[in-house]
Amino acid sequence: MKAIELTTAEFKTQIFDFSANEAWKYNGDLPAVIDFYATWCGPCKMMSPVMETLAGEYEGRVRVYKVDVDKEKRLAALFKIRSIPTFIFIPMNGEPQHANGAMGIEEMRKIIDGTLLGKKQ
Question: Catalytic annotation on 77?
Answer without folding.
Answer: no
